[in-house]
Amino acid sequence: MGAIRIARPEDAKAIARIEVETWRSTYAGMLPDRVLVNMSERRQTASWASFLRHRPEDVSVATATNGTIQGFGNCGTQRDSTIRFAGEVYTLYVAPDRQSQGLGRSILMSLFQRLVDTGHATALVWVVRANPARFFYERLGGQQIMHRPIPVGGQQVEAVAYGWRDLGAVLAGTAKSGDGLTGDSLN
Ligand SMILES: CC(C)(COP(=O)(O)OP(=O)(O)OC[C@H]1O[C@@H](n2cnc3c(N)ncnc32)[C@H](O)[C@@H]1OP(=O)(O)O)[C@@H](O)C(=O)NCCC(=O)NCCS
After folding, report:
1. Are 125 and 142 spatial neighbours (Cβ–Cβ below 8 Å)?
2. What does the pLDDT look like over 41-90, one tens digit per residue?
3. Contact assessment for residue 127 and residue 89, using Cβ atoms and an 8 Å cutoff
4. d(CA 123, CA 157)
5. Ligand 1 pocket, mutate which of 100, 111, 134, 137 (most atoms under 8 A from CB)
């Protein structure tokens, strides 16, 4: 059995590799080619290494039995003061050959737990509108709260925000429709 754990500084390279691999496989045709071609595992490794030196607790990784990292995500305080959601899931990526095995759900729940532990009762995530991953967030009870264009590589890309209004209830499995979790999504 694999596990979900807090990231360590030495995970930077594996995280960067998954990030670049999933960006290229997910966003081809959605984001400018130039952005995808110019991504660099080396630069992303340096960036994650720096992040992990300061805030490793904000990054969750899913590991296989042998310790290999198969997915990751990170979270923190929501960045737009005009939006009334406290926390934000900044990234969530599962390696292409490990998707649809429950890892994304487990990582998301770990990030929600981290947000609750750090005093954030609500959260949102931004998704490129054309990305089918948004149906994953709907499945996990996220409700569309707004949409707007975001600048990526010199182009405007339409993005959708999904929100959860009661992370505690989501984690407890007691969320009602409107809290950001419906039906049996967590059971
Ligand atoms: C989106 C992503 C994180 C989901 O993780 P995952 O491990 O593949 O998803 P899970 O296996 O945990 O799925 C949980 C549930 O969501 C559903 N689901 C997952 N992806 C879905 C999709 N694209 N459309 C509809 N439902 C989806 C699953 O069927 C599952 O439903 P269940 O409750 O009936 O079992 C992962 O597929 C991924 O990294 N995709 C590419 C990168 C990306 O777009 N990331 C998001 C950027 S904001």
Report:
1. yes
2. 999 999 999 999 999 999 999 999 999 999 999 999 999 999 999 999 99
3. no
4. 22
5. 100
The answer, yes or no, to whether residue 184 has pLDDT greater than 50, is: no
CA-to-CA distance for 40 and 50, rounded, in angstroms?
16
Q: How far apart are CA 177 and CA 150, in angstroms?
A: 29
**Contact present, 74 and 90 (Cβ < 8 Å):** yes
46 CA → ligand 1 middle, Å: 27
Which protein residues touch ligand 1 with a CB less than 6 Å away? 22, 26, 92-94, 99-105, 127, 131-133, 135-136, 139, 185
Minimal-distance CA residue to ligand 1 atom 3: 104
Whole-structure pTM value:
0.94
169 C-alpha to center of ligand 1: Å? 21
Please give the domain boundaries of the chain with CATH numbers for all domains.
3-172 (3.40.630.30)
Place of tokens 């960045």: 79
Distance CA 26, CA 144 (A): 21
Query: 143 in helix, strand or coil?
Result: strand
Torsional sign, CA 85, 59, 159, 44: positive
